[in-house]
Amino acid sequence: MGYYECLGLLTATPLTYSIDSGCLVVNQIMEQRRNRRFTLQLPLSITRAGAERVAVAGFTKNISSTGVLFTAEREPDLGGPIEYIIVLTHDGGPPVSLRCVGKVLRAERVPDGSDPTAYQVAATLERYEFVRDR
C-alpha cells in the first residue's frame, strides 16, 4: 500500500486537509444524506405555506426522493407545512406537474447575494401526485 493510499487520498469520500505543527492532517467528511440528489433546474411554485394559500414562484436546484432544494421569492415559515408544484417538461410533450406536500427544513437568503429578495429553501417531499395540465 502506497503512502497516499494509507492516507485515504484514493477514496471516493470527500476529504479535507490541514497542516498542524508541520504535519499533514487528513479528515474524512462523512456524507449524511441517505438518498442521491439530482441537480435539476425546473420551474416550481409554492401554492400553500402553512394554512395560507400563496402563489410564490421559484426554481428547483436539486431533488431527491425525500426532499428538494429550491429558490423562492419569499421565505416560508421554518418547520411549517408547505405545498409546492414542480413542472416536469419534456421536449415536444405536454408538461406534467408534480404536486408535492412536505415540511420546510431550512430557509436562507441566496448565498451569492445576486438577488436580495431570493431565498434558498430546503423542504421534505413527504407526499406527491402527478397532475396533467388541462
Task: Please tag this protein with its features.
2 domains; 1 helix; two-stranded antiparallel ribbon; mainly beta; disordered N terminus; Thrombin, subunit H; 134 residues; 10 strands
Notes on the protein architecture:
By secondary structure, the chain is mainly beta. It folds into two domains: 32 residues, no CATH class; 95 residues, predicted glycosyltransferase like domains (Thrombin, subunit H, Beta Barrel), CATH 2.40.10. It is built from one helix and ten strands. The chain has a six-stranded antiparallel barrel with strand order 4-5-6-9-8-7. A hairpin with a 2-residue loop joins β7 and β8. The longest helix has 5 residues. It is globular and about 65 Å long. It starts with a helix and ends with a strand.
CATH homologous superfamily label of the largest domain: predicted glycosyltransferase like domains
Form type: globular
- DSSP helix count? 1
- Give the tally of β-strands: 10
CATH topology of the largest domain: Thrombin, subunit H
Q: State the end-to-end CA separation.
A: 62 Å
Which spans of ≥5 residues are poorly predicted at pLDDT below 50? 1-13
Sheet with the most strands, sense and barrel status: 6 strands, antiparallel, barrel
User: How would you state the average pLDDT, rounded?
Assistant: 80
Q: What is the ordering of alpha helices and beta strands?
A: HEEEEEEEEEE
Summing up helix and strand content along with how strands pair, one would put the structural category as mainly beta
Q: Supply the CATH architecture of the largest domain.
A: Beta Barrel
Oligomeric form: single chain
Share of residues in strands: over 45%
If strands are numbered along the chain, what order do they take across the biggest sheet?
A: 4-5-6-9-8-7
Helix content: under 10%
**For the record, what CATH class of the largest domain applies?**
Mainly Beta
Radius of gyration: 20 Å
